[in-house]
């Protein structure tokens, strides 16, 4: 048994759900954008996006990415430009939309796609680009001004913001006002966990209404299929969990930030940064999903993970191997990926969950000293 597991999801408890479940039982509406789903969407748009644009819930972020890409990609384009340093869902979503992933290197400090390199390849590939899919790595408040310009130049942008729900920077929620699509995940392992679920946001209301139609079998108002749709709807039960999660999200964010600051304290105290360990340069208020850290140049993440595991502490290697080194994606084109390869061989993610104590954090950091 692991003394300290990597994650210990803590979804809202039965008691908080009861009033919402009673509503479902009274209405007998279980899905199809029912009343709880509608209330959740209205609250999110109001409380997180200042009623700018529109949102639609989805049954998970992978489906959300597929729907967003399919509704905005340029019809003659072939490539979806994205980082290789992301979760497999990003390139998979592009493949399901009939596109080829084209992997672009990341920056060494914030681990997000290298904008300069991306610009060069947008020039080179021209009309062959169908869409650009940046990933806001580990929920950092990635500056979207550059991607707004890309979107306005006619290359649609879908942001993989899987870990970004609840992220704020300069008072605004991540993605607010963005004219492309921003896709959030509500998977149990994310900070806003409901089990399975997600949300697509855009400042472009027409785009969201197309996505909403596409996630309901492509039905028009007369229930005839007019677009290549699928079933991407979130159930009323998940909407119940989502609503009760909204009620306590501020406390959840605080708990995650507290654990993160304990980590920083311990890492400083034990001089990790002086010894060549690095953490992500990140912006904004982040409801940390986990604690990524890079071991010094010349060391391998797997060795540290192994050493921790011997002390019954579970750590993971997000995102290693990066997508372009995985069997399904190996054949797809890419820019030089030096930084991606350098980071991914050294990165590990340490445990981070809401009920962790300072003592847990001390044990983990102590365990890394011994590694
Ligand atoms: C979790 C995650 C996804 C997938 O989200 P689901 O809701 O599980 O489909 C996609 N991209 C990234 C970067 C993620 O971390």
From TrEMBL:
Which InterPro entries does the annotation name? DegT/StrS_aminotransferase, PyrdxlP-dep_Trfase, PyrdxlP-dep_Trfase_major
What are the protein's GO molecular function terms?
Answer: pyridoxal phosphate binding; transaminase activity
Q: Which UniProt keywords apply?
A: Aminotransferase, Pyridoxal phosphate, Transferase
One Pfam family of this chain: DegT_DnrJ_EryC1
Question: Could you name the active-site residues?
Answer: 190
Locate the N6-(pyridoxal phosphate)lysine modifications and list their residues.
190
Domain of life (superkingdom): Bacteria
A single BP term in Gene Ontology: polysaccharide biosynthetic process
Instruction: Keyword check for Transferase, yes or no.
Output: yes
Write out the similarity annotation. Answer: Belongs to the DegT/DnrJ/EryC1 family.
Could you identify this protein by its name?
Answer: Aminotransferase DegT
What organism is this sequence from?
Anaerobacillus alkalidiazotrophicus
């Amino acid at each position: 048994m692991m003394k300290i597991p990597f994650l210990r999801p803590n979804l809202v408890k039965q008691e908080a759900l009861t009033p919402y479940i009673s509503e479902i039982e009274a209405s007998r509406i279980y899905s199809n954008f029912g009343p709880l789903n509608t209330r959740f969407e209205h609250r999110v748009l109001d409380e997180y996006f200042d009623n700018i644009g529109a949102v639609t819930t989805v049954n998970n972020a992978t489906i959300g990415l597929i729907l967003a890409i399919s509704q905005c990609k340029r019809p003659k384009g072939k490539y979806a430009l994205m980082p290789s340093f992301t979760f497999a869902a990003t390139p998979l979503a592009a493949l399901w939309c009939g596109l080829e992933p084209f992997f672009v290197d990341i920056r060494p400090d914030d681990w997000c796609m290298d904008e300069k390199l991306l610009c060069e390849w947008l020039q080179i590939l021209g009309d062959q680009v169908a869409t650009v899919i940046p990933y806001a790595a580990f929920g950092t408040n990635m500056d979207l001004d550059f991607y707004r310009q890309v979107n306005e130049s006619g290359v649609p942008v879908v942001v993989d913001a899987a870990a970004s729900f609840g992220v704020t920077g300069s008072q605004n929620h991540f993605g607010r006002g963005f004219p492309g699509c921003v896709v959030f995940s509500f998977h149990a392992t994310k900070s806003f966990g409901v089990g399975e679920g997600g949300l697509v946001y855009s400042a472009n209301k027409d785009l969201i209404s197309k996505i909403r139609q596409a996630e309901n079998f492509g039905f028009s108002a007369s229930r005839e299929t007019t677009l290549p749709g699928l079933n991407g709807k979130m159930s009323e039960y998940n909407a119940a969990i989502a609503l009760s999660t909204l009620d306590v999200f501020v406390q959840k964010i605080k708990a995650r930030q507290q654990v993160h600051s304990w980590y920083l304290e311990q890492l400083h105290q034990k001089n990790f940064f002086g010894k060549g360990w690095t953490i992500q340069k990140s912006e904004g208020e982040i409801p940390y999903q986990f604690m990524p850290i890079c071991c010094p140049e010349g060391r391998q993440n797997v060795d540290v993970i192994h050493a921790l595991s011997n002390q019954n502490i579970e750590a993971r290697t997000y995102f290693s191997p990066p997508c372009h080194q995985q069997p399904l994606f190996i054949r797809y084109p890419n820019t030089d990926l030096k930084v991606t390869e350098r980071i991914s061989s050294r990165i590990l993610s340490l445990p981070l969950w809401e009920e962790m104590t300072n003592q847990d954090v001390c044990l983990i950091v102590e365990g890394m000293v011994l590694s």
